[in-house]
UniProtKB/TrEMBL annotation:
Domain Trehalase-like N-terminal, first and last residues per copy: 3-126
Cross-referenced Gene3D superfamilies: 1.50.10.10
Residue ranges annotated for the GH15-like domain, each copy included: 217-581
Species assigned in the record: Pseudomonas reidholzensis
One annotated GO molecular function: alpha,alpha-trehalase activity
Keyword Flavoprotein: no
Biological process according to GO: carbohydrate metabolic process
Known EC number: 3.2.1.28
The keyword Hydrolase belongs to this UniProt entry's keyword annotation: yes
Record-given protein name: Trehalase
InterPro entries linked to this entry: 6-hairpin_glycosidase_sf, 6hp_glycosidase-like_sf, GH15-like, Trehalase-like_N
Length: 598
């Protein structure tokens, strides 16, 4: 049985990621990249689907864990009756795809056990394992090879690789597990100490560039590191999460593969980077975007693979039981074929903010925009599946129309100074005004009091908070204020927001899910806009309190069960931590100090 979602910590090397539980079990790892078949899949099944546990044999009296400084090097300290020791877990930054685990004795003597269960193809394939020398073994299955190098001897037991050893104060033992193609010669092991110091230094150097944001600086840096770890360094693509099929309702079917690059999620991540001054990441993402969306604008997708791949066919893995028996376990995502109008607004907003932030205009971006904007103009009146990717049919979602307005509003603002550019900008402004008129006529409830989820609907949707956050209408517009009241009355659950009521909304799936964390961050942002800073701060503190002890959040939270739900860690949630902290920090600064506050 896997651990609770909130019990996991993240390891990453900007190519792939691993999840390690509090008891020292590494239960999820995809190699050589985020969306590759998992070599450890116990998270979605059991230990026979692959895991790597390293922990004391004797009863643990106390265990504590933290990241070393502002890095992704995880330190877990164990105290037993006979001694105290720590385990350092890391994925070294660089070209290699490996996990290093270091055991160091701190006091007395501690007995440890290592249990390595290597499986390929999401836990289905048992590899051929052989020793290359007394301290090195190879595991091969088809195109993949894992190499384990250790400073203690190991032996086979029932298709597991195990070891028992003792570490005394001042002693160190290490394990290095690396991936490589099986047809290539075995690559030499890295220098463990050098890899540790280099990785600590590179993560710390990245975090040191983060500006001070007042009382929430530590949480912001941790979320920034988490988002950086979810960036695929070779291409600049940003994944929505590092896992697949962690359930939005335990035992339910709302289990999706998030190891891809949604334009929406990646754009919001990009904005968080830029808000903190990280424009190198913004430039890399923009290059990824322009490569991925190049071609016929009608073929532009809402999501892509890490290198811009378009074929993300969805299928299930029946041999995996699912997290706490939540079926199906999915790979790929059929939402790649959906129409979601909001992505055009998200991308346009990001491009506008990048230019305002000083990022030079890309020569190809204007040409692509001249192709995409006429296409958006031709489709914005049509229904879509919306931001929440419903599978119950298309609707005229109000949020989608609002974000289509954002696309034309931002494009108008970016228009150049030539006569042709001015005419184009005026046309974009005309289309934006037309969209706003329609939304304000058709997007309200039957009595015209407040906005609703979709034209003709009476349902409420947390995405309507974006009406104020995007500038579509002022936050103090009476229609928006009444919408906010409806959201608070109908979607707040134990002080946290649901994205919509899945019991009454027809989204094509079995009802039931947790509160959607990014929506609560949006609510706090709206409170800031309205000058309700005390309420914003109280909600933000409540959300920070949901983070686990190493500062990570999943997509959703179940207030009744007091547990995280959905894929983990979730970019959306960590974007919320950053942006709301910035909004609160700016609100707390006196007007004369706002430039200094950022």
């Amino acid at each position: 049985m896997p651990a609770p979602i909130e019990d996991y910590a993240l390891l990453g090397n900007c190519r792939s990621a691993a999840l390690v539980s509090r008891d020292g079990s590494l239960d999820w790892l995809c190699l050589p990249r985020f969306d590759a078949p998992a070599v450890f899949a116990a998270l979605l099944g059991n230990e026979e689907n692959g895991r790597w546990r390293l922990a004391p044999c004797d009863p643990v009296e106390l265990s504590e864990r933290q990241y070393l400084q502002d890095t992704l090097v995880l330190e877990t300290t164990y105290t037993t009756a006979t001694g105290r020791a720590r385990v350092l877990d890391l994925m070294p930054l660089g070209d290699a795809n490996s996990v290093i685990r270091i055991v160091e004795g701190l006091a007395g003597e501690t007995n440890f056990e290592m249990d390595l269960v290597m499986r390929f193809d999401y836990g289905r394939s048992v590899p051929w394992v052989e020793k290359l020398d007394p301290l090195t073994l190879s595991a091969v299955a088809g195109p993949d090879r894992l190499i384990l190098c250790s400073t203690v001897s190991t032996h086979a037991r029932d298709h597991h690789t195990v070891s028992r050893f003792r570490v005394a104060a001042g002693e160190r033992h290490s394990f290095s597990l690396r991936h490589q193609p099986s047809h290539l010669p075995v690559q030499p092991d890295c220098d463990i100490s050098d890899a540790l110091e280099r990785t600590l230094g590179r993560w710390q150097a990245f975090a040191d560039r983060c500006p001070d944001v007042g009382r929430y600086s530590a949480q912001v840096r941790r979320s920034l590191l988490t988002l950086k770890a979810m960036t695929y360094a070779p291409t600049g693509g940003i994944v929505a999460a590092v896992t697949t099929s962690l359930p939005e309702r335990v035992g339910g079917e709302r289990n999706w593969d998030y190891r891809y690059c949604w334009l929406r999620d990646a754009t919001m991540t990009l904005l968080a980077f830029m808000n903190l001054g990280y424009f190198d990441e913004a430039q890399a993402w923009r290059e990824w975007l322009l490569r991925s969306v190049a071609g016929n604008p009608e073929q532009m997708q809402i999501m892509y693979g890490l290198a811009g791949e378009r074929d993300l066919q969805e299928y299930s893995l029946p041999w995996l039981a699912g997290y706490e028996h939540s079926q199906p376990v999915r790979v790929g995502n059929a939402a790649a074929g959906q129409r979601q109008l909001d992505i055009y607004g998200e991308v346009a907003d990001a491009m506008a903010q990048a230019i305002k932030g000083g990022l030079p205009r890309h020569p190809r971006s204007s040409a692509i925009a001249r192709l995409i904007m006429p296409y958006v103009e031709s489709i914005w009146r049509e229904p879509d599946e919306g931001i929440w990717e419903v599978r119950g049919g298309t609707q005229h979602f109000v949020h989608s129309k609002v974000m289509a307005w954002v696309a034309f509003d931002r494009a108008a603002g970016l228009a150049g100074t030539t006569e042709e550019d001015r005419e184009r900008g005026q046309h974009y402004r005309h289309v934006a005004d037309e969209i706003r008129r329609e939304v304000c006529e058709r997007g309200l409830d039957a009595q015209g009091r407040f906005f609703v989820q979709a034209y003709g609907s009476e349902e409420m949707d947390a995405s309507l908070l974006q009406i104020a956050l995007t500038g579509f209408l002022p936050a103090d517009d009476p229609r928006f204020l009444r919408t906010l009241e409806q959201i608070e009355q109908r979607l707040l659950k134990n002080g946290l927001l649901m994205r919509y009521d899945s019991d009454s909304c027809s989204d094509g799936l079995t009802p039931g899910e947790g509160t959607f964390l990014v929506c609560s961050f949006w609510l706090a942002d709206v409170y800031v806009l309205l000058g309700r800073e005390a309420e914003a701060q109280a909600l933000y503190e409540r959300l920070l309190g949901l983070c686990n002890e190493v500062g990570l959040l999943a997509e959703q939270y179940d207030p009744a069960g007091k547990r995280m739900l959905g894929n983990f860690p979730q970019a959306f949630s960590h974007i919320g931590i950053i942006n709301t902290a910035l909004n609160l920090h700016r609100a707390e600064c006196p007007a004369r100090d706002r430039a200094r506050c950022g």
